[in-house]
Design a protein that fits this description.
This protein is 43% helix and 12% strand. The chain is an alpha+beta fold.
C-alpha cells in the first residue's frame, strides 16, 4: 500500500453524496452526517477503494494506510470514555451504528516528516484500502431507506457504514465485480463474500511460479522495466492470489506480448549473461542457462490422422480378480491385470486390496504371506513415527516453529476437507482425527517437505477406501512419491507440467492455442489446480476414485494426466471460442466445470488422443519425450527419385506393450478378460533400444 498522499490512478468508479452517519451529541468533534466522495481507482495493478469527506478531499494527511509490514489497512482503537457493545449485537443495524460511536481511527505516522494538522474533525473518517484486503461486504435490509454498505477487511476489521444518499450502491458492486468474485454468504444473505468459490484456485495461484515469466526470460525478450513490473505483480499475487490475478494477470502477459511483438527486437533484447545477473539479484534462487539451448524444436502443424473410437469395459469384478491369482496369492499376469484396470477400473469391493498394488505398497509379484509380513513391518514403522510427534511436549513445540506451523496448517485443512462426504461429515468425526494423525505422521516421514496445502485432498480418498490408518498412510506416502515435485517450494514439477501441457495442446490444436494466447491465457494457468491435486476438485468423489486408479496403471503412456487435460480443454473449446471468452471468462468457465465433467467420456477421449499420437509417423521429439515414446527410424521410399534408397525420418513409437495391446483393445472395444494381441503394422516404426 502506498504511503499517505493524494491517491492517483485510473478512476473506475466515483460517487458523491456517500455519507458516514455518526451519532450526534455523543462526542463534540463528530457531525451526525459526514458527506464524502467514494472512489475506486486502479493504480499500479492494484485496485484501491478510497473515501474521504468532501471538505477534506485534498488533505492527504487524513488518509489511513498500512505499511508493508502491516496486516491490515487500518487500525482501530477504543474512543475515550466509550466501549463497544458485545459481539452478540454485531448482526443488527443498530450494532453497526454502535461501531461508529464506539471506535475511532488511529493513524500511523508518516514515514517522513510530521503529519500536517487536520483542518477539521471530519478528517479522522477518511480511509482507503486495497481490494486485496477486502473480506466481505454487508448490505442494508430492503426497505430501510438509503442503501448502505459496510466493508469488512481481513482480520475482521470493520469500516463505518457508507450511506448512498444519491443513488444506490449497485454501480459500486458492479465495478468491484470486475476484479473480484462476490457471492452471497450462506449464513447471511445480506453479506457478500469476496472470492468465496475459489479457495483452491487461490492456493494454486499463490504457489504458482516463484520466478516471474518463467520460460520466457531465457529468450531475453523482456526489458528491465517490464521485467520489474512482472516481478512486482507476482508479489501482489502472493498477497491475495485470486484478486491480484483478476486485476492484472492480463497485464503481465500484455507486457510480455508487447515485448515479443516489438518491431525492433534489438530494443528489447538483453544479453543472456546480463539477464542472468539481473534476475539472480531480483529473484533469489533463480538460475538461468546463459548458453543457447541446442536442438530447440519448433512444433509446426502436423496431420495426426484420424482419431480412433475408444470404448471402455465394465469394472473388474471380485471373481475376475480372484481368477487371476494363484494358490499362494500371486497375481498371474500383471500386465493383463493393469490392462483391465485401465480399460474399466475396479469394483469398489476390490479397491482396498488392489490400490495397494497400484500404488506400490504391495509388490505385484508378492505372495499373500509376504504381504502379511510386510504389513506387520509397516505397522511397527508407522507407529514409531507417530510416537515421535505424539511425544513432543507443549514446551518442546514452543521451540519448534516448523512442527508448530505444520500442525496449525493441518488442523485448518482437515476441518475443511470433504466435509460433505459422510465419511468425514459432522463434529468429532473419527475420519477427521485419522486424517490429522496421518498427515502429522507424514511430517515425521518427510520432514523436509512436511505439510503443504492440497495434500489433505490426496489423502482423503485413500483413507476412505482403506478404512485403516496404517494402510492409508503407506498408500499416501507412495502417492506422494509421485506427486512430490508438485508441492516442493520451487514447484519445478508444476512448471514443467504446464510447459508440457502447452506443447501437447499446440500439437493437437494450434488454432485453439493461438486463441488462448490472444486472450492472455496461453500459459494455461487455469489448469494449475487440475495438475496440483490430480483433478481432485474437478470430479465427484466416486469419479475421482475411478480416475485415479486408471492413472495409477501408468497406461497407456507416460503423463497420461496431461492428455486428460487436453481432452477436457478440447471438449470446452467450442464454447470458449464461439462465445469469444476473454481472460476472465475463460478462468471462470474452467473453474465452473468442477463436478460437471463426465469421467468415462474424458477417459475415452484422452485414450483416443494417445492412440492417435502413437499412429503418427512424424511426432515431434518433444512430444515423444513427454509421452515416454521411444525414438525410431522410419524407412520410406524416396518419392522424388523413385530409387530404393531410404530416407530417415525422425519419429517415435510407444512401448511394445502399448502398440500391441492397447491398439487392439481400442479397435475392438474389447471386454474380454485377457488383452488381444495384434501385430504392429509394417508402416509403424520399429523399436530401437531406449
Amino acid at each position: 500500500m502506498a504511503a499517505a498522499g493524494v491517491v492517483s490512478g485510473k478512476i473506475i468508479y466515483e460517487q458523491e453524496g456517500v455519507y458516514i452517519h455518526s451519532s450526534s451529541g455523543k462526542t463534540n468533534d463528530h457531525d451526525s452526517l459526514i458527506s464524502g466522495i467514494l472512489r475506486v481507482l486502479e493504480k499500479d495493478s492494484e485496485v484501491i477503494v478510497d473515501w474521504k469527506p468532501l471538505d477534506d478531499a485534498l488533505d492527504s494527511s487524513s488518509i489511513l494506510y498500512a505499511g508493508k509490514d502491516s496486516s491490515s489497512v487500518v487500525e482501530w482503537t477504543q474512543a475515550p470514555k466509550e466501549k463497544a457493545r458485545g459481539l452478540e449485537h454485531l448482526n443488527s443495524y443498530e450494532a453497526e451504528w454502535d461501531m461508529v460511536n464506539a471506535v475511532s481511527f488511529k493513524k500511523k505516522r508518516h514515514t517522513s516528516g510530521d503529519a500536517p494538522s487536520h483542518r477539521n474533525g471530519k478528517s479522522q473518517w477518511s480511509f482507503l484500502f486495497s481490494l486485496t484486503d477486502l473480506k466481505s461486504i454487508k448490505q442494508n435490509k430492503e426497505g430501510m431507506g438509503w442503501s448502505y454498505l459496510i466493508f469488512c477487511l481481513k482480520d475482521d476489521v470493520v469500516l463505518p457504514a457508507l450511506h448512498f444518499h444519491q443513488g444506490d450502491s449497485k454501480l459500486l458492486i458492479d465495478s468491484l465485480e470486475k476484479y473480484v468474485v462476490l457471492c452471497d454468504s450462506p449464513q447471511d444473505k445480506r453479506t457478500l463474500l469476496v472470492n468465496c468459490q475459489n479457495k483452491s484456485l487461490s492456493q494454486s495461484f499463490e504457489n504458482l511460479l516463484d520466478e516471474p515469466a518463467y520460460g520466457l526470460i531465457q529468450a531475453g525478450l523482456l526489458d528491465r522495466r517490464n521485467l520489474l513490473w512482472v516481478i512486482h505483480h507476482w508479489k501482489k499475487i502472493k498477497k491475495d492470489p485470486y484478486t491480484a490475478t483478476m486485476v492484472g494477470f492480463s497485464k503481465v502477459t500484455n507486457y510480455i506480448f508487447d515485448s515479443l511483438r516489438g518491431s525492433d527486437t534489438s530494443t528489447h533484447q538483453r544479453p543472456p549473461s546480463e539477464m542472468a545477473d539481473f534476475l539472480s539479484d531480483a529473484i533469489p534462487g533463480l538460475r538461468i542457462n546463459q548458453q543457447e539451448e541446442p536442438g530447440f524444436e519448433v512444433i509446426t502443424k502436423i496431420d495426426l490422422g484420424e482419431r480412433p473410437v475408444v470404448q471402455r469395459r465394465e469394472p473388474i469384478s471380485l471373481e475376475e480378480w480372484t481368477k487371476n491369482m494363484d494358490a499362494e496369492g500371486r497375481i498371474l499376469n500383471v500386465d493383463n491385470m493393469k490392462h483391465m484396470i485401465f480399460r474399466g477400473g475396479l469394483s469398489h469391493a476390490l479397491r482396498k486390496e488392489a490400490w495397494k498394488f497400484l500404488l506400490g505398497y504391495f509388490p505385484w509379484y508378492s505372495t499373500k504371506e509376504e504381504r502379511t509380513q510386510l504389513q506387520k513391518q509397516k505397522t511397527d514403522e508407522y507407529f514409531r513415527m507417530k510416537l515421535q510427534w505424539k511425544s513432543v511436549s507443549e514446551e518442546q513445540e514452543k521451540r519448534n516453529s516448523r512442527l508448530r506451523d505444520y500442525r496449525s496448517l493441518i488442523e485448518k485443512d482437515v476441518n475443511r476437507t470433504d466435509r460433505t462426504n459422510k465419511f468425514y461429515e459432522g463434529q468429532d468425526n473419527p475420519g477427521l482425527i485419522l486424517l490429522h494423525d496421518i498427515l502429522m505422521t507424514y511430517c515425521m516421514y518427510d520432514f523436509d517437505l512436511g505439510y503443504v496445502q492440497g495434500m489433505s485432498d490426496l489423502l482423503s480418498p485413500l483413507l476412505y477406501v482403506m478404512e485403516n490408518e496404517v494402510d492409508a498412510f503407506w498408500c499416501f506416502a507412495s502417492y506422494m512419491d509421485q506427486m512430490h515435485q508438485n508441492f516442493e517450494e520451487q514447484m519445478q514439477g508444476m512448471k514443467i507440467q504446464l510447459i508440457q501441457l502447452s506443447t501437447l495442446l499446440r500439437l493437437l490444436d494450434s488454432g485453439f492455442c493461438s486463441y488462448l494466447e490472444s486472450q492472455d491465457s496461453g500459459y494455461l494457468y487455469f489448469c494449475f489446480r487440475w495438475l496440483l491435486i490430480r483433478f481432485k476438485r474437478e470430479f465427484s468423489f466416486l469419479d475421482i476414485l475411478r480416475l485415479w486408479e486408471v492413472m495409477w496403471t501408468e497406461l497407456p503412456c507416460k503423463n497420461f494426466h496431461l492428455l486428460l487435460c487436453c481432452a477436457i480443454l478440447e471438449s470446452e473449446k467450442h464454447q470458449i471460442m464461439e462465445k469469444h471468452y476473454g481472460f476472465n471468462e475463460i478462468l471462470k468457465h474452467i473453474n465452473e466445470l468442477s463436478m460437471k465433467i463426465d469421467v468415462e467420456d474424458i477417459l475415452c477421449k484422452a485414450e483416443a488422443i494417445s492412440l492417435q499420437m502413437v499412429k503418427c509417423k512424424e511426432l515431434p521429439q518433444a512430444v515423444c519425450e513427454i509421452l515416454g515414446l521411444q525414438e525410431s527410424e522410419v524407412s520410406t521410399p524416396d518419392s522424388d527419385t523413385g530409387e530404393d534408397e531410404n530416407t530417415v525420418i525422425t519419429g517415435c513409437t510407444p512401448s511394445a506393450f502399448h502398440s500391441n495391446s492397447l491398439l487392439g483393445y481400442a479397435a475392438r472395444g474389447s471386454r474380454e478378460d485377457s488383452p488381444a494381441q495384434m501385430s504392429v503394422s509394417p508402416d509403424v516404426s520399429r523399436l530401437t533400444p531406449a
